[in-house]
Amino acid sequence: MKVLWICGSRIVGGAERATLQIAALLRARGHAVSVLCPGDSRLRPLLDAMSLPSQAAPLGGALNLRARRAIGRVLAAASPDIALVTTADEWVWACLCRRGATRLVLVRHMALPLSRRVGWLAARRAAAVVAVSQVVRDSLVGGAGVPSRLLHVIYNPVRFAPRAAVPAPAERARARQALGLPVNGRWVGFLGGLDPNKGVSDVAHALQRANQVLGPTSLLLCGRYDQARQPSAQALAQTFELAGRLHYLGETDRIEEVLTAVDLVVMATHRRLNEALPATLVEAMACGTPVLAYATGGMREVIGGDGEAGRLAAADDAIELGRALIEMLADRAGAERMADAALARVRDRFDPGRAADRYEQLFSALCGGGQAARA
Questions:
Q1: Do the Cβ atoms of 83 and 77 come closer than 8 Å?
Q2: Residue 292 region, left (φ>0) first, then alpha (ψ -120 to 50), else beta?
Q3: Number of Cβ atoms within 10 Å of the Cβ of 49
Q4: Each residue of 325-336: b (16+ CB within 10 Å) or e?
Q5: Cα separation of 228 and 214, whole Å?
Q6: pTM for the full predicted model
Q7: Long-range contacts at 305-312 (CB < 8 A, ≥ 24 apart)
Q8: Which site in 202, 325, 348, 363 is 20 to 30 Å from 83, CA atoms measured?
Q9: In this predicted model, what pLDDT tens digit does every residue of 59-91 receive, in sequence order?
């Protein structure tokens, strides 16, 4: 099959990383995959490194009429079997283009509300709509009015193979050493940067309580920092009495080392962001590291019930988050049991091969070669 991935993003976030992985897996299975994206997108060096054919186009922006013309030209020239569209603005332009025999497959990576007008358009022009979690599916049915007959839930895959077992203390110590961190003591990881909506202050508050109750506990903080709009790591440490206990690595590609170095990973994204399918949570589970998250959006879908493959705290409740964090750090045997269950859950639900199977089956069914499973 010929698959054209249309993406208007200029950054490489979780949605782009997941689609890159799917594209590589489909190509390895003999399908011809190419990409249409902005010329200044950070995707382009990654596509070049993977030898994935790509074309530059003026994509991005709700009022960008040039995007419609560019998509239409490429669809007419390439005539792919499948046009896979992963950004909302390009949903609109791809729906408005003439596509010939090309089947339009729209992918939604966010559970935030989608305009009902866009949902109406997708319902009339798309051959299928993929939601990366049940939470996303529900938002498309209830909020955007996309018919359930078009919807397929396909979980984004984990980026690396899950570990065979929970890391031994010596492995965590080696990961800390590799990152230049003190080897001893308790470590909590947070990869949401300094964005208040990601709950960095909630996590800092929880760490403050852990230091008071359990003794020395350090926070390994990774992710973006917007100097113009966000407090610095130093200011955060002063506010929550974490001087010498907060280590900020910034944005990093050393994800496996970071997630292995810590005793616990916390995701505290606030309810208003309605996290769709938290990649950090899945990746931490694949590293055999215990996880704690607010019970909102796709967090519950990844972990299951509270205590199954991790702990869940009431959404936006920093006090409960701190209580659960202290309990997990104090009960290492219990935390490891949940981490073991999490490894099995990742293998079952977020395996890359399984995700590629689902996309391949869907595309084949749309092109008349088989039946697509929905669940």
A1: no
A2: beta
A3: 8
A4: bbebbeeeeebb
A5: 35
A6: 0.90
A7: 307/338, 308/338, 308/341, 308/345, 309/285, 309/338, 309/341, 309/342, 309/345, 310/281, 310/285, 310/338, 310/342, 311/338
A8: 348
A9: 998 889 899 999 999 999 999 999 999 999 999
Name which of 171-180, 230-239, 261-270 the model is least confident about: 230-239
Please state the φ and ψ torsions of residue 36, each to the nearest 5 degrees: -115, 120
Reduced 3-state DSSP string for 179-228: CCCCCCCEEEEECCCCCHHHCHHHHHHHHHHHHHHCCCEEEEEECCCCCC
Amino acid present at 15: A
How many angstroms separate the CA atoms of 101 and 139, rounded? 29
pLDDT of 238-282, one tens digit each?
A: 999 999 999 999 999 899 999 999 999 999 999 999 889 999 999
The rounded distance, in Å, linking the Cα atoms of 295 and 320 is 11
Q: Give whole-number Cα distances, 264 to 236, 281, 290, 338, in Å.
A: 20, 11, 5, 11
CA distance 313 to 332: 18
